[in-house]
């Protein structure tokens, strides 16, 4: 008999048993909802919705008691790894600890309870929040102005490319190509296409850095700009950044900074000072707004002065005026590319980021970068005899190992190592990225993990490597709610909803 | 001052010693000295948490709108979010997880999204629902990209009944994709599709249901236009309304999108919200964003995993169907919890109560001298537009003094782009009012009385 309401799994604290779907827990006649007393006269549905517009049958959702609802989602939560549970050294994702004070800020009724279309005089506190964040981000990035609208890093990238385009058009040009290195995040080329440009890929050299000669060879006046992450996705600082930027600027192109790895350089060096013109920042990485299992993020875009007039609007601004009281309002830049969000961006994420910046201050942010880089280098050196360091030189906030040699010798790949590390109680590093490293294992410990945690993580990875040599890694993990999942089957016999169950061939 | 960094002085010395370094600064040797910040960031020093919280509270207190009884809508609604939903959706296992790249340790989040996809699919009547997009506007942009990609035609015909901000975003992104966006005007709240008959190739027709002025339009003409032109029909549907009015699938939609904020997410000054995206099975390989599917693990046990990953940017790069990576998963999970709490009956009850309250409020307002409907006799559902005898922004200002956020001024909503189908007078005097299940009779009566005074 399928489980119905009230059933707890046999080992709920371990999250080991499969949890039925909410649809299977449903029993007609149960309910949780309670709505306020309104005192309004009831009007029959037939009088509210003309027959030709009425829905034929109710939307079947589920019928569960509140107690069962709580049990269901609590048991699901026990089947989910998270930063609060343990280290999450997922390279390129900056899974640092998310301070709870930021949750408290986002939960303030004075912020969370505000309608986005309320007139400016009634939302002065929100406008002050947004202006303060924009100013702080511009200082951190070394830029002049910003838009807070983009809802994630990829949205920021596309916004930046549309700014590039508007800038081109304003100069009467129609450039067609954008350059990205072969180590770039996949969102970069995808955004380039949506921005109406073609991607030109430039290779990395033996240092793991942009090959300056290869770059010069593809530069001409058809290049609208170059997108670059610095430190790059190998965790290495692009030492030639000044020459790269001036070469791109010489042909009239713009430099775009992918802010995914900003955590490494907070307060050390700023994208603006490196020669970048457009910068997106991933607030859910660097500024610790929680990742939510895949969002919400926020991807504000900051620009140099010559691009400010193209920014999306309306923008929150401090209004000119006299007297002690500062007033805020909205303003759309003169040649704005238009809206890139339905409202003002992921506002509560933005408020969390501001709180994070305020707690840390300029000095604290600098310490964040120092500790992040220290932790990554400690891991690099400690594990350099266990795995090959892809580019063996000091790294920034993350380090990329290659498991290719281990793979050849033992048959266990980076993927197997990742699965083995799960049995050690850690979330695995990023695998198979960047694409230019065979069997990549990308480790980003972040600054909030302690020395003891790093030691435990390193020991865990060493044990996993030893198991690879013993030939006992195959089939890991065995201690998790489910074991390795059949991804090919999921794609072949697509079951994307409960209603599709049993209907596939 | 304490912060979130665990390193003791001893740890730092040990770790630097292990690396053969004598200072933290040496870690940055690869950063050219000429580029480095000499004096650090020009930001104030860090302050303790309680001070930061006090500062944020003060900013919150400066948002007078938070204390007003909310009759504003336009895609963002003040619905009931019970403590149980906040408690479950706020569990840190969900809040502080990353994208489920390792399904063995992410079954909880994956299953919640699978349940979310099922609920959205049932609501809109189409078999495929993704794991979320940023918001309604971004879902619309992706629907248009799917439609033009699938038909190979770059013409987009959009009803002026689609939310003005969404249309604005559509125009912004069309600069990159090269789509030709044409707007079909509204006449008394109903789209006049005939205005675009001369237009060339059309890949997508976009309608809204109810439209942004709250009207329920007959979407038969939109479906016919799409059929005649070999285009897909995309419908932007209010997900609460969908509980009691025809689903996008009932109107023949190929793609349905919506703003999922009403399902458990606070007004939040406009974000983070939840982009809903549904489509017919034939378009699944062009689906933007993530998709969770059921499968089996090595022991043959039921398991969930993100699937059809070959569409996505990290694999297909410049040929990906979309650049979306991080989306709004936590809001999607929240929606699954909220919908689970509402259940079949509660969802219909919320929609009915909204419509009921809106009817009561509209009837009462139309009894005021000089207040006229803006959309003729076209049926409305949970939101409605009125023409006031005074500018709407002035009315909102006056009613704020009485404790009400009376609605949204159409002028502010259509923004500087204006709205061709809304005359200047209608825009400046147009007020859009929404009523949710949270609004009581006393609040509505109070609002109507205050409006009566304000327009006299």
Descriptive report:
The complex is a heterodimer of chains A (505) and B (456). Chain A is of the alpha/beta class and 505 residues long. Chain A has three domains: 1-79, no CATH class; 101-358, 3-Layer(aba) Sandwich (Aspartate Aminotransferase, domain 2); 365-487, Aspartate Aminotransferase, domain 1, CATH 3.90.1150. Helices cover 36% and strands 10% of the residues of chain A. Chain A is built from 17 helices and 13 strands. Chain A has a seven-stranded mixed β-sheet, with helices on both faces. Chain A is globular. Mean pLDDT of chain A is 94; it is low at 1-13. Chain B is of the alpha/beta class. Chain B folds into two domains: 68-81 and 344-455, Aspartate Aminotransferase, domain 1, CATH 3.90.1150.10; 83-336, Type I PLP-dependent aspartate aminotransferase-like (Major domain) (Aspartate Aminotransferase, domain 2). Chain B is built from 14 helices and 17 strands. Chain B has helices at residues 9-19, 49-61, 83-89, 92-95, 107-124, 136-151, 164-177, 220-229, 313-316, 329-366, 392-401, 410-414, 424-429, 441-455; strands at residues 69-70, 128-129, 155-159, 180-184, 186-187, 190-191, 204-209, 232-237, 255-259, 275-279, 292-296, 302-306, 372-373, 383-387, 404-405, 408-409, 430-434. In chain B, strands 2-10-9-8-7-3-4 form a seven-stranded mixed β-sheet, with helices on both faces. In chain B, strand 3 (155-159), helix 7 and strand 4 form a beta-alpha-beta unit. The longest helix of chain B has 38 residues, at 329-366. The mean pLDDT of chain B is 95.
């Amino acid at each position: 008999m399928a489980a119905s309401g009230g059933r707890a799994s046999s080992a709920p604290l371990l999250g080991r048993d499969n949890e039925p779907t909410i649809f299977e827990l449903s029993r007609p006649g149960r309910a949780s909802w309670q709505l306020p007393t309104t005192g309004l006269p009831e009007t029959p549905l037939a009088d509210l919705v003309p027959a030709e517009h009425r829905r034929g049958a109710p939307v079947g959702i589920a019928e569960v008691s509140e107690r069962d609802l709580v049990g269901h989602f609590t048991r699901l939560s026990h089947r989910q790894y998270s930063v609060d549970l343990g280290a999450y050294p997922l390279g390129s994702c900056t899974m640092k600890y998310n301070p709870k004070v930021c949750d408290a800020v986002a939960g303030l009724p004075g912020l969370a309870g505000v309608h986005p279309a309320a007139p400016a005089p009634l939302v002065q506190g929100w406008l002050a929040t947004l202006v303060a964040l924009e100013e702080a981000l511009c200082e951190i990035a070394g830029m002049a102005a910003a838009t807070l609208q983009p809802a994630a890093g990829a949205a920021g990238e596309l916004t930046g490319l549309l700014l590039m385009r508007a800038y081109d058009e304003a100069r009467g040009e129609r450039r067609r190509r954008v350059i990205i290195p072969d180590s770039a995040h996949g969102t970069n080329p995808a955004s380039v296409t949506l921005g109406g440009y073609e991607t030109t890929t430039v290779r990395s050299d033996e240092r793991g850095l942009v090959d300056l000669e290869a770059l010069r060879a593809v530069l001409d006046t058809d290049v609208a700009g170059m997108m670059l992450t610095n430190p790059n996705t190998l965790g290495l600082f692009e030492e030639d950044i000044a020459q790269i930027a001036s070469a791109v600027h010489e042909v009239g192109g713009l430099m775009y900074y992918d802010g995914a790895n900003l955590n490494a350089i907070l307060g050390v060096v700023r994208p603006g000072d490196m020669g970048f013109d457009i910068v997106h920042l991933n607030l859910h990485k660097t500024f610790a707004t929680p990742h939510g299992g895949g969002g919400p993020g926020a991807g504000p875009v900051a620009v140099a002065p010559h691009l400010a007039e193209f920014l999306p609007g309306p923008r929150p601004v401090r209004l000119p005026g006299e007297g002690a009281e500062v007033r805020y309002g909205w303003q759309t830049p003169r040649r704005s590319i238009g809206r890139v969000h339905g409202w003002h961006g992921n506002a509560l994420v933005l408020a969390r980021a501001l709180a994070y910046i305020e707690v840390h201050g300029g000095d604290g942010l600098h310490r964040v970068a120092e500790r992040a880089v220290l932790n990554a280098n400690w891991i690099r050196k400690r594990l350099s005899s266990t795995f090959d360091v892809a580019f063996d030189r000091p790294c920034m906030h993350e380090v990329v190992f290659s498991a290719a040699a281990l793979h050849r010798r033992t048959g266990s790949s980076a993927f197997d190592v990742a699965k083995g590390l799960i049995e050690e109680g850690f979330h695995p590093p990023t695998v198979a990225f960047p694409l230019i490293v065979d069997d990549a294992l990308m480790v980003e410990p972040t600054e909030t993990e302690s020395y003891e945690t790093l030691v435990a993580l390193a020991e865990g990875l060493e044990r996993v490597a030893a198991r690879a040599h013993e030939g006992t890694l195959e089939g890991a993990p065995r201690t998790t709610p489910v074991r390795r999942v059949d991804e090919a089957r999921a794609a072949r016999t697509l079951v994307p909803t409960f209603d599709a169950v049993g209907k596939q061939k | 001052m304490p912060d979130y960094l665990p390193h003791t002085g001893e740890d730092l010395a040990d770790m630097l010693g292990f690396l053969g370094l004598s200072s933290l600064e040496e870690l940055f040797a690869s950063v050219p000295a000429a580029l480095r910040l000499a004096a650090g960031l020009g930001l104030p020093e860090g302050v303790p948490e309680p001070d930061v919280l006090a500062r944020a509270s003060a900013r919150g207190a400066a948002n007078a709108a938070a204390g007003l009884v909310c009759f504003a809508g336009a895609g963002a609604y003040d619905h009931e979010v019970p403590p149980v939903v906040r408690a479950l959706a706020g569990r840190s296992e969900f809040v502080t997880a990353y994208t489920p790249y390792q399904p063995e340790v992410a079954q909880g989040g994956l299953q919640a999204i699978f349940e979310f996809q099922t609920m959205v699919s049932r609501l809109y009547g189409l078999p495929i629902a993704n794991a979320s997009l940023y918001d309604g506007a971004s879902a619309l942009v992706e629907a248009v990209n799917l439609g033009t990609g699938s038909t190979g035609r770059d013409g987009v015909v959009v009803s002026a009944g689609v939310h003005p901000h969404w249309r604005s975003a559509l125009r912004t992104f069309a600069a990159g994709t090269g789509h030709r966006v044409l707007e079909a005007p509204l006449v008394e709240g109903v789209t006049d599709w005939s205005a675009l008959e001369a237009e060339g190739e059309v890949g997508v027709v976009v309608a809204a249901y109810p439209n942004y002025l709250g009207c329920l339009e007959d979407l038969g003409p939109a479906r016919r236009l799409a059929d005649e032109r070999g285009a897909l029909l995309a419908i932007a549907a209010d997900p609460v309304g969908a509980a009691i009015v025809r689903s996008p699938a009932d109107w023949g939609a190929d793609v349905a999108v919506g703003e999922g904020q009403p399902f458990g997410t606070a007004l939040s000054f406009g974000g983070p919200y939840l982009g809903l995206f549904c489509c017919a099975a034939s378009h699944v390989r062009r689906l933007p964003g993530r998709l969770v599917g059921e499968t089996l693990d090595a022991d043959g046990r039921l398991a969930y995993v993100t699937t059809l990953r070959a569409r996505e940017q990290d694999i297909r790069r410049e040929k990906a169907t979309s650049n979306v990576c991080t989306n709004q998963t936590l809001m999607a999970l929240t929606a699954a919890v909220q919908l689970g709490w509402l259940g079949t009956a509660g969802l219909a009850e919320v929609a009915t109560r909204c419509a009921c309250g809106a009817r009561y409020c509209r009837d009462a307002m139309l009894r005021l001298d000089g207040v006229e409907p803006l959309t003729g006799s076209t049926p409305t559902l949970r939101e409605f537009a009125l023409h006031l005898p005074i500018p709407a922004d002035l009315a909102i200002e006056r009613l704020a003094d009485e404790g009400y956020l009376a609605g949204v001024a159409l002028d502010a909503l259509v923004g500087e782009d204006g709205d061709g189908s809304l005359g200047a007078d209608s825009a400046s005097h147009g007020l859009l009012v929404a009523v949710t299940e949270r609004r009581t009779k006393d609040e509505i009566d109070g609002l109507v009385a205050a409006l009566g005074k304000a327009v006299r």
